[in-house]
Amino acid sequence: MRILCDYLTVLGLLEKADDHYQLTPEASAFLSKRSPAYLGTTAQFLLLPGLKNNFDDLTEAIRRGGVAPSGNTVADENPIWVEFARAMAPMMMPAAFAIADLVASSSTGSLRVLDLAAGHGMFGVTIAQKSPSAEIVAVDWGPVLTVAQENARLAGVQDRYRTLPGDAFKVDFGTGYDVALVTNFLHHFDQATCTKFLQKVNHALKPDGRVVVLELVPNPDRVSPPIPAGFSLTMLAGTPSGQAYTLSELRQQLEDAGFTDISAHPLPTPQTIVMARKAAAR
Amino acid sequence: MRILCDYLTVLGLLEKADDHYQLTPEASAFLSKRSPAYLGTTAQFLLLPGLKNNFDDLTEAIRRGGVAPSGNTVADENPIWVEFARAMAPMMMPAAFAIADLVASSSTGSLRVLDLAAGHGMFGVTIAQKSPSAEIVAVDWGPVLTVAQENARLAGVQDRYRTLPGDAFKVDFGTGYDVALVTNFLHHFDQATCTKFLQKVNHALKPDGRVVVLELVPNPDRVSPPIPAGFSLTMLAGTPSGQAYTLSELRQQLEDAGFTDISAHPLPTPQTIVMARKAAAR
Predict the structure, then answer these.
(1) Residues of B in contact with A3 (CB under 8 A)
(2) So what's the pLDDT on residue B50?
(3) N or C: which end of chain B has fewer CB within 10 A?
(4) Backbone region of residue B80 per phi and psi (left: phi > 0; alpha: psi in -120 to 50; beta: other values)
């Protein structure tokens, strides 16, 4: 136990004075189960053998330009996304609050929200908590949506929360949405697929409806900041043709899909929100 | 390939300018096979599944205070030590040069050197290269010694290089050595075992003979510097009762084993050389 605590001190998660150890402020905020900002569950997802093992064959992934089909994390109904929904919600809360604020401050009247690949559901749920008139429709694979529904219940917004199970590329979204959320999604796919998906989203929106994209966005040099830039390798190792897109690439995808008024909102986390408005029909 | 190169740039192993990449000075010195200081082979040892897998069950190792017998890296004839001998020599060269200098500067006349758990053999071989009158006797398991002998041949010192195969705790070293090398060894064992082993070494030395210990030595706080302090966890995960010892613990082991005039020589690497002289019989 002494060796473990010394190691955690070397890592900066504990402070040692004489032979006593205590949590550092960061560990106390994010790694204590008593803290509302507890992030420890994220390790359950990020260290899944199905994700770690992709790096055992990184050379092959680089030769191919993407992962072999057996390692594809975005394959249909991959059960890792249920684990994702359970484990990753806490790490997404700062972005969820920022999105809810942005959506609320730019909305007037009705607020029908389409939450795509909703996962844990917290992006939509947080909007519903912030905006009492908001109604959420969450799309994801069925088993994942049970986690989102549970979170909607816990947040007391279940009356304004509907689910639409299925593959987001195939399911009929319906139309008339004010806002569509495309969070942590585009980096799994190549640019043409992203554009096509955003076109589908565009069709589901009302005139002047908005899309909210959440991504890890590297600078144009693609080697900074470290987390968004490094994330491309994770996608190379785990998807057939995904990567972290620069802002100009995302802008191109959005414009090609019929969006305009594109704005970027970097967060204090390594994430960036990109908002855009449905362009008038040409 | 672009994503890989960007990632290596994030890590500081490449520099990127426009769309061109080049090695950083550090990568050029240590990660190019054209460099005499190439360290890439070390990954072959440090990433062996037999070593990495010990961390899959770290909780159990911490509960036990050491690894389960099946994961014990110091078990008899573990083939990982042949891999160690082949892979880790380059990383040990700075310490090997420092030891050869220390031994040469404090020697007069004959130089019979006992190189214990010799591995790649480079500690003894480097002494033989530096001191033309030195004769080396290398102890290790038989398959490991074939690597050491090959290195002695390559260095042109094979005429002054003998091997003594067997378990260093059991094999008869003989007597009359001027110097004994105990490098990267003590951290695998508990203090009582270290002291007993050093007693055996003491008996093999001439009067006034010296022992040279090479270790990762944390400060008395056991949480700095990061590499020696953190190394204790590696030993907890991979040995039944090993750890990185502080200087005062090593001093105690050496005094209890009959050594005196103990001096510490920190290296520019994270390693420390500890030298001591055989005390006169009491």
Answers:
(1) 62, 232-233, 236, 243
(2) 82
(3) C
(4) alpha
Sign of CA dihedral B117, B121, B124, B127: negative
Tokens found for residue B81: 């030590």
β-strand partners of A273: A214, A265
Give the DSSP H/E element, type plus range, for residue A7.
helix A2-10
**Helix or strand or coil: residue A266?**
strand
| Residue A226 in contact with partner chain B when CB distance is under 8 A | yes
**CB A243 to CB B3 under 8 A?**
yes
B32 CB-near residues (< 8 Å, 6+ apart): B23, B38
Which position has the token pair 């510490």? Answer: B264
| A window 14-73, beta carbon within 8 A of B | 16, 62
Question: Tell me, what's the pLDDT at A76?
Answer: 66
3-state class (DSSP) for residue A259: strand
Q: Output the six-digit token pair for B252.
A: 């105690």
Mutate which of B10, B16, B22 to disrupt the A interface (most A C-beta within 10 Å)? B10
Give the minimum alpha-carbon distance from B39 to chain A in angstroms, rounded to a whole number.
Answer: 19
- pLDDT for residue B282: 62
Alpha carbon distances (Å) from B274 to A240, B71, B219: 53, 29, 14
Residue type, A261: D
Query: Which residue in B has a C-alpha nearest to residue A17's C-alpha?
Result: B221
Residue A273 has pLDDT above 70, yes or no: yes
Q: How far apart are CA A143 and CA A257, in angstroms?
A: 30
AA letter at B277: R
DSSP B279: P
Tell me the per-residue pLDDT of A132-185, one tens digit each, with 9 for 90 and over: 999 999 999 999 999 999 999 999 999 999 999 999 999 999 999 999 999 999
pTM, full prediction: 0.86
Both tokens assigned to B261: 């005039």
In the DSSP assignment, the letter for residue B282 is: -
Nearest chain B Cα distance for residue A191, angstroms:
15
Q: B231 CB contacts (<8 Å, ≥6 apart)?
A: B187, B216, B218, B244
3-state secondary structure (DSSP) of residue B136? strand
pLDDT in tens, A54-103: 888 899 999 998 987 777 777 667 788 888 888 989 999 999 999 999 99
Question: Nearest Cα to B8, choosing from A236, A248, A241?
Answer: A236
**Beta strands at B205-215 and B177-183: parallel, antiparallel or unpaired:** parallel
Using only C-alpha atoms, what is the Rg of chain B?
A: 20
